[in-house]
Amino acid sequence: MTDKDKRTRFNPLLVLGIIWLVGALCDRIWFALDRSVPSWDQADYLTGSLNYWKALQHPRWFSGGWWESFWQLSSKVPPFTYIATAIVQNLFGTGPDSATLVNLLFSAVLLASVYGLGVQLFSVEVGLWAAGLCQLLPGLYRYRLDFLLDFPLTAVVALSFYCLTVWRCIGTAEAQRTQRREWFWAAVFGLSLGLALMVKQTALFFLLTPLLWVGVGVIRHRAWGRLAQLVFSLLVSVLVFAPWYRANWLLMLTSGKRATVDSAIAEGDPALNTLEAWTYYWKILPYHVSWPLLLVPIVGLLIYWGRAAFSNQKAQLGNENKSKIGWLAVFWMGSYLLCSLNINKDSRYVLPYLPVVALFLAYGLTRWVSRWNYIRWGTISLAVLLMFLNWFPVEGTVWKNFTQALSPYAQHPVYLEKELPHPQVIREIIQTEPYLRSTLGVLPSTANINQHNFNYYGALQNFQVYGRQVGTRKKQVAQDARSLSWFLTKTGKQGSVPDAQATIVQTVEQGSDFQLHKTWNLSENSSLKLYHQKSPPVQVQPLSEPQNKVKLVNVKVPEVAPPGLPVPVTYEWTGSWEQLQSGIVLLTWRSEEKTENPTSQWLHDRAIGMGNLYPEILPDKLLAKGFRVIEQTAMLPKADTSAGIYTLEATYLNRKTGETYPIQVPPVTLKIDAAVAATPAPELDLGTQLRTLAATLPQGTAALEQIFAETGRINQYDPIQDYLVQAQLALEYRLQREPNRDLAYALALSRVLKRQAKDAIASLERVVRLDSENPYAYAYLAFVHLYEWHPKKAQNVLKPAVALNPNLLEIKALSGVAALMQGNFLKAWHIVQEIRR
What we know:
Blueprint: H1 3-9, H2 12-33, H3 40-55, H4 64-71, H5 80-92, H6 96-99, H7 102-121, H8 124-136, H9 138-144, H10 150-169, H11 175-199, H12 203-220, H13 224-267, H14 275-283, H15 285-289, H16 291-310, H17 314-319, H18 322-341, H19 354-365, H20 373-391, H21 397-406, H22 422-432, E1 438-442, H23 451-460, E2 465-468, H24 477-483, E3 486-490, H25 501-510, E4 514-521, E5 527-533, E6 538-542, E7 551-556, E8 560-561, E9 567-576, H26 577-581, E10 583-591, E11 601-603, E12 606-607, H27 620-623, E13 626-635, E14 644-654, E15 660-663, E16 669-672, H28 686-694, H29 701-717, H30 722-737, H31 741-753, H32 757-770, H33 775-787, H34 791-804, H35 809-821, H36 825-836
Parallel strand pairs: 1-2, 1-3, 8-16
Antiparallel strand pairs: 3-5, 4-5, 6-13, 7-9, 9-13, 10-11, 10-12, 10-14, 14-15, 14-16
Helix pairs in contact: 2-7, 2-8, 3-5, 3-23, 7-8, 7-10, 7-19, 8-19, 10-11, 10-12, 11-13, 12-18, 14-18, 16-19, 16-20, 18-19, 22-23, 24-25, 28-29, 28-30, 28-31, 30-31, 31-32, 32-33, 33-34, 33-35, 34-35, 35-36
């Protein structure tokens, strides 16, 4: 029976739709019954989708700054899956079940692409069987139920490969019409390639080999028109992916080492010089496919070829579908080799080549014809049974052994036990501190209890609570414990935690600073414990009478303190909620002698409430009332601060409107005396820590490692990095009135950490003016120019640095990079050789 005859019996697109619909219903039944919480990666990706959902609530399509911040919402992972999920959540609401609806869209793309490939290369029958197999391969349905990037990547790679295949196969009849089709499919391929690279960078592992294969073939046949089309498609893809990659290329490269090399070492993946590294994915192919779906099609194909050979059809067999199967083999083998070359191995990293495997298997299944038809249908029925047993396990050793034997390591059972208390933990924190944005230190790290899924459930509550894993380094445990008000501990198994975790757990549970707030019992015979700081650093109290401008009603400090060490200080503010929440306070502790000597003052600028006053939850009736905010923090007189009596000056700056006004200060004095002992103090506020770190920048690279280690630590305490915004507003205000080298370095550092490249360049140009005899000042400016792909400007900036210190290796390295980016390979080579010597 020919394909034309079969089409008269059924509508293939209707059958394809039914295949998708049945798979979709099965998936949603699983989600309706499942009570689990997302694990590490799933929760992290779900939070990423919420970040984009929030950004798209109030888009500013014609603002360049908005687009820059939009692309930077996901600095390491391309955001197409997040954006697609954000749109889905805007339609169906937020939450894990709503977010996973996006996989139905990607499933439709996958099935349509595989069906199209089957029709293009073989027949409608093969296309439909391949689409059906994509619903039944354990490697695909296992991850179709998880919110990860690998299934969306599989769908978009399949779409891209289909478009490339169509473009490759277009005939030469009716030249003008064919050329139009070729240009059209070249453009569609470019668009799909760009989208694939916007899902995950590893899309290249799967598409690079067929792309090179086609390119070499076009050049070999001197088909210059086709080459132009191929180049055009690549240019189209660049237009799609370039904005995100340009904004995040440096972080993407630096995080790539942690995601590959470091992860591979931690997980014990085989080294590339071992046979195991190159056979890893071959060994797990039965896990991805299941034994019945792997063996039955192969046997059918061997019998088909054998019968053809014995019936003197060998020559015909050699030509039949040879080039088409070879084209699929190019994709599969190229993907296999490039994925094996990646030192970090995981079964889900090769999912995008499974649709091509499904095509091979479908071709083999369709070789069972005539009276052997029952074999293919029996195989499919067995695959359906295995899928449901992997999803909904049946009690009994026989069934477990049966499933494990035929479909090993594919189990993804629905979780039917008691719901985990993540939403209750988040609600408890919000109810206790309703006016604050809180950061929760999550000390265990298991699949069910970890920083990522608590961070996600906090994001679901309008981003009022953030989860972070702290206490990972013993030398930072004391700082971590003093910097957060909430901690979560767990009895029993702790999961993948560092050695320092036991120390911080002991500090929280047995120390005097925290008290047990609430306990939840978990199903695995363990309990979850929420601890709260006895004396939180920020306390908010509503007042009965309305307030307007911010007032400083009380300040408590010791009578005397030494320089160079933290000094405890308590500020008590009152005002309207809008003024308090939007307020940056510029605090100057100045010597009574009123000299202009910089050693006779220090700063304590920051937002009221450390920037943690939550702006989005108060009902209208409370907005008209006043509030009291009490801060218990510490400030840092510099080590060279002159001895004497110091008083406080205060100015208010509204971060939204730019409004400023002086704040009346209650009588308060502090004596600085190097001979006295320090009073125990809480942790310094993050703005003070930033300025202290920035003051070491003139030392050059010797200071950078410590700076980035410490900023990485304090970024955990402020997950939205609002302390950098506070610092920028305060520092810009002060620098407009008085040039100061240290403050200029601090402003530049804050803008670099926020990845505001253009503003960072302006700040570093100010640094160069104020610190013109320091070669490192020029080096910092040159580096940011290189980050922005301004190699010529970087080269010009480095000239004064070379004159100041021609032997500085950092200057030479930056000069080499600038030369390389300008295409001056000879100069770059000479600089490399000079550095080596």
